[in-house]
Structure formats: structure tokens, C-alpha cells
Design goal:
Largest sheet: 4 strands, antiparallel
Strand content: 15-25%
Number of helices: 4
Radius of gyration: 29 Å
Helix content: 25-40%
Number of domains: 2
Order of helices and strands: HHHHEEEEEEEEEE
């Protein structure tokens, strides 16, 4: 009888321990939710691909993309910092997209190559497929990321806006705001004055930059070609890569 009681107690304790282990927290719930979201996203993509084959048209993944994004954000909002990972919506989406594209390409027996909108091999992107990357994920403030003919990321239209060219704000002591491509960045202030020859954009003092308007490279002041503030005594010529209303003065 004593042995029977001990056996019963052991079973009760074991059952209690199992029950305690079965109770999961928000971290596990968030993880499970994200796994389901990825699974449903890939299933939706496969369904769209299959439909496209039977209809002989391009796959429409609009609903898959919207559902994935909405569900992911709801999961992170619901479980917050308890989620094992945070802010990985785009990276996981890229991995899932690549997985689906690879499987579909294999089934279609399409040979790999740059230009088929499928990222494969050593490609960083392919056509319109940027793998979820944007100018922002590449470390810029804004702009339009692109993929070049060699299936490599093209950042030429991306830009950073660290400061203001017209009012010269946003930079620290000894620095001035200069245009670099489509970006406005802080760099060491030069010494060149208006009309003086220059070699680099920051060869000039704050408020001026190095331009060429038929007289060689010279320092010229920035101007506002829309509001004329600050005023430009000469012609204010806009530079397409700069802000929409920013240009430089020249005779």
C-alpha cells in the first residue's frame, strides 16, 4: 500500500511539472505567431504562382504582401518587447520571398541569370526585385534604390540630409553644409571666398560651394531660386540634384 501511495504522489508531481512546462509566455507566443505568418505568406505566394501558371499571366502577390505586413506589425504591437526579435519584418520577408522564388524557379526549370527578377547566386538584387532593400535600409535618409544591369545595388539616387544649404544649420563648429550628389552633408569649412578658384565642394567658406559656370571652378553662394530668400544679386541657377529651390548665384 505504501509503495502504491508513493507511486501516486510521483505521478501527481510529474503531471504538475508537465503542466508548468506547458504554460508559455508572450515570447513564445510572439515567436509562434511570426512562424505562422511566414508560413501563411509563403503559402499565399505559392498559390498566386500556381494561379499565374494556369492563367498564363504574371502572379499577383498584392494580397500576400499586405496580409504579411499587417499581421507582422500586429504581432509585434501585441507582444512588444517580449518578442525574441524586433523590427525584422523586411529581412524575414526578403528571406521568405527568396525561398519562394528559388523553389518556383527550380520547378519552372528556369536557368539562373541576371535579369529574371529572381535573386540567386551572388546577386544582390535582380531587376525590380531588391530583396526588401530600400535607401533607408542601406543607411540613407530617402531616395529611390535601384538594381543595375549587373544585379548589384545602385545607391546613386539615395540621399542623406544632414544639414541645410541655404541657412547653413545642422553642422558643428568648424563644419559647413555642402552638396554631395543628392545629399547635403557636413564637412570641414574651406577658406575660398566668392569668385575665388576651388577644387572641392568644401574648398569654399560656409554658404558657398565650388561650381563651374564657364569660368572654371569657382566659389559661388547658394541662393533660393523660388522664394529669392536669401536674395541673389545675379542669376540663381537651380541644380537638379540639390533641394528643389536651391541653386547658386552667378553673373
Amino acid at each position: 500500500m505504501q509503495e502504491f501511495r508513493i507511486a501516486i504522489i510521483t505521478i501527481v508531481i510529474a503531471a504538475s511539472a508537465t503542466g508548468a512546462a506547458a504554460a508559455i509566455g508572450d515570447a513564445e507566443k510572439c515567436l509562434a505567431a511570426k512562424i505562422k505568418i511566414v508560413g501563411k505568406y509563403e503559402a499565399c505566394r505559392y498559390k498566386a504562382e500556381a494561379l499565374a501558371v494556369t492563367k498564363e499571366m504574371s502572379p499577383d502577390n498584392t494580397k500576400c504582401e499586405t496580409k504579411y505586413s499587417d499581421s507582422w506589425q500586429k504581432a509585434e504591437l501585441k507582444y512588444g518587447l517580449d518578442c525574441p526579435t524586433d523590427g525584422d519584418e523586411l529581412s524575414i520577408h526578403s528571406d521568405a520571398t527568396t525561398h519562394v522564388d528559388t523553389i518556383v524557379t527550380t520547378l519552372k526549370n528556369i536557368p539562373p541569370g541576371c535579369g529574371n527578377n529572381i535573386i540567386e547566386g551572388g546577386e544582390a538584387c535582380d531587376g525590380a526585385n531588391l530583396g526588401g532593400e530600400t535607401c533607408v535600409t542601406q543607411g540613407f535618409d530617402d531616395g529611390a534604390l535601384a538594381c543595375d544591369v549587373n544585379c548589384m545595388i545602385d545607391q546613386s539616387d539615395c540621399a542623406n540630409h544632414d544639414c541645410s544649404l541655404l541657412d547653413q544649420t545642422g553642422c558643428g563648429v568648424g563644419l559647413a553644409c555642402y552638396p554631395i550628389g543628392k545629399s547635403e552633408v557636413c564637412a570641414g569649412e574651406g577658406t575660398g571666398i566668392e569668385g575665388q578658384g576651388c577644387m572641392f565642394v568644401n574648398s569654399c567658406v560656409a554658404g558657398l560651394t565650388c561650381v563651374n559656370y564657364g569660368m572654371g571652378d569657382v566659389c559661388a553662394p547658394f541662393c533660393d531660386n523660388i522664394d529669392n530668400d536669401p536674395a541673389c544679386a545675379q542669376t540663381c541657377t537651380n541644380v537638379p540634384d540639390w533641394d528643389i529651390n536651391v541653386g547658386y548665384c552667378h553673373p
